[in-house]
Write a sequence for this structure.
């Protein structure tokens, strides 16, 4: 065991007891065993701590260190994760949200890439989305092949899209420390921010195989932030941070994409507006449509904007029919994979 590098598996949790067994079982089923598991509960009001204590015995039986902590009060998602990180000892760090889970070979695949390519600060895999009932939604991988992307090139891509949530990525602890001075706490967009920092710390690896399962449900913090527009505002502020960080790091490519990145936030608002309509939240949908004009003043001239705006006073069956027709006419989700940036190395 000592000949293999240790992975610190971080599991921050708040009121996800209903998903915890699935999460823990996926770790116990890993083909890679030199790990420590750090579970920190953010003062949950459900059965999370009881479930964690039950699994303490199971991890002990397999010889896996399982550290459990419980905050006296809710410190926020990002801060809870950072408190876990402060106790991690592994060469590599993996943060797994407690409502997500991973395929048995996830850890093994990621470590093999990180060990082979020491300049890689973060490896990302493709993901499968899973809803509250366990139904799976598969999408095309972001890149069309396994590859190593130069950090600056991937930082430029991260200007346009966050791509990876925590369950998709593993980080090289040593390389990630290069950008420790830029670490900060965010309410919503911390994942996107950390992705960008890792691209500033080294190269980025991508594995197109879907090796993790990302839970999409109404109770997660991302969904709540969508209702009140907080996520969109943080994304705007992040782009400004990205320009400042890339300037300090001597990276020009991310800065060049700033204007296009701001405009893309307008398109993001249209997707959120559609989601609000689907949940019969017309007031929130109208807010997103107005906000889209702040990011892209010309967006009201495109057909997708006009069709969404025309739905603003609709309700009931009329709104449902409009949503159905809109989805038939416009493709809302990415349907193809991209070629990685020029100069990337195929794995």
């Amino acid at each position: 065991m000592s000949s293999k590098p240790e992975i610190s598996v971080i599991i921050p949790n708040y009121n996800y007891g209903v998903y915890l067994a699935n999460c823990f079982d996926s770790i116990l089923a890993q083909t890679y065993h030199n790990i420590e598991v750090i579970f920190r509960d953010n003062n949950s009001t459900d059965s999370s701590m009881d479930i964690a204590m039950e699994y303490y015995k199971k991890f002990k039986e397999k010889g896996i260190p399982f550290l459990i902590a419980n905050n006296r009060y809710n410190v926020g998602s990002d801060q809870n994760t950072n408190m876990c990180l402060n106790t991690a000892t592994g060469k590599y760090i993996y943060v797994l949200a407690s409502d997500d889970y991973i395929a048995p070979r996830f850890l093994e695949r990621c470590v093999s890439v990180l060990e082979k390519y020491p300049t890689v600060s973060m490896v990302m895999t493709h993901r499968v989305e899973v809803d509250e009932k366990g139904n799976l939604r598969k999408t095309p991988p972001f890149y069309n092949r396994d590859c190593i992307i130069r950090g600056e090139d991937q930082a430029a891509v991260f200007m346009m899209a966050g791509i990876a949530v925590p369950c998709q990525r593993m980080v090289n602890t040593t390389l990630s420390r290069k950008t420790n001075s830029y670490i900060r706490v965010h309410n919503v967009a911390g994942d996107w921010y950390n992705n960008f920092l890792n691209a500033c710390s080294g190269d980025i690896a991508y594995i197109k195989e879907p090796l993790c399962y990302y839970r999409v449900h109404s109770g997660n913090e991302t969904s709540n932030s969508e209702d009140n527009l907080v996520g969109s505002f943080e994304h705007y502020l992040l782009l400004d941070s990205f320009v400042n960080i890339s300037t300090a790091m001597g990276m020009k490519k991310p800065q060049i994409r700033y204007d296009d990145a701001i405009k893309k936030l307008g398109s993001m608002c249209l997707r959120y507006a559609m989601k609000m309509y689907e949940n019969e939240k017309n007031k929130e949908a109208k807010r997103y449509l107005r906000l889209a004009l702040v990011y892209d003043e010309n967006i009201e001239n495109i057909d997708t904007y006009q069709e969404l705006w025309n739905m603003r006073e609709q309700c009931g069956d009329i709104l449902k029919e409009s949503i159905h027709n809109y989805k038939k006419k416009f493709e809302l989700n990415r349907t193809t994979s991209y070629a990685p940036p020029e100069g990337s190395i195929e794995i």
